[in-house]
Design goal:
This protein has about 240 residues and is an alpha/beta fold. It has helices spanning about 20-40, 60-65, 70-85, 110-120, 140-150, 170-180, 215-225; strands spanning about 5-10, 50-55, 90-95, 100, 125-130, 135, 135-140, 160, 170, 190.
Length: about 240
C-alpha cells in the first residue's frame, strides 16, 4: 500500500450467476459498490482512500451484455465508474477480469469448468459446441498477487485495468486437454451443440503489464480439478467426488 493511503477497500463479493434475479444482480453488483464509493468520498483527502471493484473483460461488449444479466450488471458498474471516478478524491480502480478458477470449492455449475467437472465426476457425456470460442483462464491466486502488486504502487489514480495474458485458449483445446488427462475422451462430444453468434473468436487482448503472475490454463485447471478430488478413469472407483 502507498504510504499516503490510509485505506484500501476491495469489493470482492457479488453475484455471478446470469440466471439470478436481474434486480438482485443490480443491487449487489452495482448499488453496493456505489454506496461504498459515496461513503469513502465523504471527507476524503485526495488519494487517501482507494476502492477496488471487479468487472469482466466482456462487460464492454454490448452484443454479449445485452443477453446476459450478469454482464449487464457489470456494464452498468463500468458506466458508473466512467461517470464518477474522474476527479474523485478516492482512487477507484476497476479491474476487468477474465475467467477465474482455483480455490477449495467446485466450480459453479453454470460455468464451462463447472459443466466439465460435473461430467467428469459422474462420467456422463459432455456435449459442447465446436469450441472455437476464445477464453483466458486465470488462477485466482495469480490475480490476487497481481492486484497486490498494483496496489503497492505510489500515487495510484482512478483507472480501469485489464488483467490479460494475451494468450487465450480455445474452449475445445481446454476441454480436450482436460478430458484426455482424466481418461474420458469418449465422453467429450465436440460439435454436438451450436455456439452463440455473439462470441469471442478472435483475440482482442494483449499482455497486461499489471498481470505479474499467470500459469498455463489447461495444466492449471487440471491441477485444480485434482485438488478437488477428481481422478483419472482408471482410479474412478477410489474417487471421493
Amino acid at each position: 500500500m502507498d504510504a499516503d493511503v490510509d485505506q484500501d477497500w476491495i469489493v470482492a463479493t457479488g453475484l455471478v450467476d446470469p440466471d439470478s434475479d436481474p434486480g438482485d444482480l443490480l443491487r449487489i453488483n452495482v448499488e453496493v459498490p456505489l454506496r461504498l464509493f459515496d461513503l469513502l468520498v465523504d471527507g476524503a483527502r485526495p488519494r487517501q482512500r482507494r476502492l477496488v471493484t471487479f468487472g469482466s473483460v466482456l462487460e464492454n461488449r454490448p452484443d454479449l451484455a445485452n443477453t446476459n444479466a450478469y454482464l449487464e450488471s457489470k456494464a452498468k458498474l463500468l458506466e458508473a465508474w466512467q461517470a464518477r471516478s474522474n476527479g474523485s478524491p478516492v482512487a477507484w480502480i476497476h479491474l476487468q477480469l477474465h475467467t477465474l478458477y482455483g480455490g477449495g470449492k467446485p466450480p459453479h455449475p453454470f460455468m464451462f469448468t463447472g459443466q466439465m467437472f460435473s461430467a467428469l465426476s459422474f462420467r456422463t457425456p459432455f456435449p459442447m459446441s465446436a469450441g472455437g470460442q476464445l477464453r483466458e483462464y486465470h488462477h485466482l491466486d495469480d490475480v490476487a498477487e497481481s492486484l497486490a502488486g498494483l496496489l503497492s504502487r505510489d500515487a495510484l489514480d482512478s483507472q480501469c485495468v485489464t488483467f490479460s495474458s494475451g494468450c487465450p485458449v480455445r474452449l475445445r483445446d481446454l476441454a480436450s486437454s482436460i478430458f484426455t488427462h482424466f481418461g474420458a475422451e469418449d465422453l467429450l462430444l465436440i460439435g454436438a451443440r451450436s455456439a452463440a453468434d455473439a462470441e469471442v473468436f478472435d483475440n482482442p487482448y494483449r499482455r497486461s503489464p499489471e498481470l505479474i503472475a499467470d500459469r498455463e490454463p489447461c495444466e492449471g485447471v487440471i491441477r485444480w480439478f485434482e485438488t478437488l478430488g477428481l481422478q483419472p478413469a482408471h482410479c474412478a472407483s477410489r474417487s471421493t467426488v
